[in-house]
Amino acid sequence: MAVSTRLAPQPVWSFVPDGSVIDIASPDAAEVCFLEMGNSLSKIARFDGRNPGPAFSVAQHSTMGAQAILNEGGTRWEAALFLLHDGHEYIVGDQSKPSQELYSSVAIDLYGEARMRDAVATCKAAWDEVIYFAAGLPGPEAWTRKQAKLVKDMDNRMCRAEAIALFGSRAGREMPPSTTPKLTGAIKSWAPMKAEEEFRKLAYRLIGEDRVLERASIVAANRALR
User: Fold this and answer.
1) CA angle 178, 154, 78 (to 5 degrees)
2) Spatial contact of 178 and 157, defined as CB atoms under 8 Å apart
3) What whole-number distance in Å separates Cα of residue 68 and Cα of residue 83?
């Protein structure tokens, strides 16, 4: 479906590139633009930006992980599922895993349940649904067990490989062991412009250039009518 259930009774307004606003409490495939996604994710830092040197972006993580799936014999569609797995962050922003665990622990301590964790998961899932719909792909709820495992495993493998590359070998000892993804090139932080460009090129390849550009046109037309 193109429109998901409202996440909150009142609108939650957020700026988009043309200076207008969208209600991020109302996930809608008509607001999904993969070009804007690449731009935004190219400026969101993994590991809260704590690594020495330049930030390692979510766009680079998604692009390198998707390419690794292809390098390891995965299908175009499987790689596309990974490319978009963090796509919701261009709408709702990023909360690192340690931050989410902190908020959950505080919520449990104060209220007896993980309210923050549940709220974050609900918002991400709702936007995931419309993002994958816009890409012509099944949302996570409809993934096969194999697809879900592939995306989760690559996410964890990329995280460990990134941690070692960005923080040193000691970081690897803080995480469960896993095989290093079959990457194309070393894990070295790309500048935002390069990360955006590589994300866009892979989106063209995996989702289809026509679909990516069509979604951009739909979004632009909808905003022009507001």
Assistant:
1) 145
2) yes
3) 11
How many beta carbons lie within 10 A of that of residue 206, not counting itself? 24
Q: Residue type for 15, please?
A: F
Q: Where are the beta strands (DSSP E) in the chain?
A: 13-15, 21-23
Mean pLDDT of the chain: 92
Inter-residue contact 29 to 133 (CB < 8 Å): yes
Check: CB of residue 91 under 8 Å from CB of residue 24: yes
Query: pLDDT tens digit string along 107-148?
Result: 766 666 667 777 888 899 999 999 999 999 999 999 999 999
Tokens of 168: 């040193």
Side-chain-side CA neighbours of 62 within 13 Å: the count stands at 34
Q: What is the pTM for the complete model shown? A: 0.92
Question: How confident is the model at residue 5, as a pLDDT?
Answer: 79
Amino acid found at 42: S
pLDDT digits (tens, 9 = 90+) for 182-220: 999 999 999 999 999 999 999 999 999 999 999 999 999
Helix, coil or strand: residue 219: helix
**CB neighbourhood size of 188 (10 A):** 11
Give the contacts of 147 (CB within 8 A, at least 6 positions apart): 78, 81
